[in-house]
Amino acid sequence: MADIMTKEERSIRMSRIHSASTKPELKLRHALWSHGFRYRVNEKKLPGKPDIVLPKYQSVVFVHGCFWHGHKGCPSSHIPETNTDFWTAKIARNQERDQEVWRKLEAKGWNVIIVWECELKNDSFLDTLSSVESQLQANLTRYLQEREDRRIRREEWAEEMRKRKERFKVINAEYKR
After folding, report:
1. CATH code where residue 113 lies
2. Per the domain annotation, does 147 fall within a domain?
3. Which pLDDT does position 40 carry in this prediction?
4. Helix, strand and coil in the chain, % to nearest 5
5. DSSP state string for 109-148
6. Residue 4 forms part of a structural domain
7. CA gap 59, 7 in Å, rounded
8. CA-wise closest residue to 89 among 74, 75, 79, 76
9. Which among 32, 34, 65, 113 is least surrounded, fewest beta carbons within 10 Å?
């Protein structure tokens, strides 16, 4: 099937597709903000420039478009009938890049939350928001526990070093006699 638009019309339409601050992303951001979550947007220092970064919760949120990221089972994620080879490769590369970015973020200690565009539609929005909030709270609890565990290990290590130092002083004093 041939494209029903001219190249100029298609170019104009495609130029209006943005990668940041999309409507679904803004909808989720406003809801999170109104529920007391404070965040940063598109943090350039992190791999993949996550859509929403919540440092307090050691979490990042990606709001993925169902078409662009190939959401399996979603009606919005179909491959166009024209130029199928291009679109199949494009979406596959997007999915590979997503996996790569998630691995890098998790290696740096971040928790990754994925929200699909279709999950932010009116009928399932509140369920999605509730799910994201519960994941964030679980991440905060885990992060605080890990931080406390590290503090305890540091104190134990410091105590062990103090005891070793005392034993070394005793041994040195006996040796000098």
Report:
1. 3.40.960.10
2. yes
3. 95
4. 65, 10, 30
5. T-EEEEEEGGGGSTTTHHHHHHHHHHHHHHHHHHHHHHHH
6. no
7. 41
8. 79
9. 34
- How many structural domains comprise the chain? 1
pLDDT of residue 2: 61
Minimum mean pLDDT among 20-24, 116-120, 149-153: which range? 20-24
User: Which residue range(s) make up the domain with 75?
Assistant: 18-176
pLDDT in tens, 122-173: 888 999 999 999 999 999 999 999 999 999 999 999 999 999 999 998 888 8
Task: Please give the Cα distance from 37 to 33 (Å, whole number).
Answer: 5
Q: Which amino acid is at 3?
A: D
- Asked if residue 13 is part of any domain, the answer here is no
Strands 59-64 and 111-116: parallel
Strand partners, 60: 53, 112
Contacts for 57 with CB less than 8 Å, ≥ 6 apart: 37, 111, 136, 137, 139, 140, 143
24 contacts: CB under 8 Å, gap ≥ 6: 63, 65, 115, 117, 120
Check residue 37 and give its pLDDT: 95
Please tell me the predicted confidence (pLDDT) of residue 18: 67
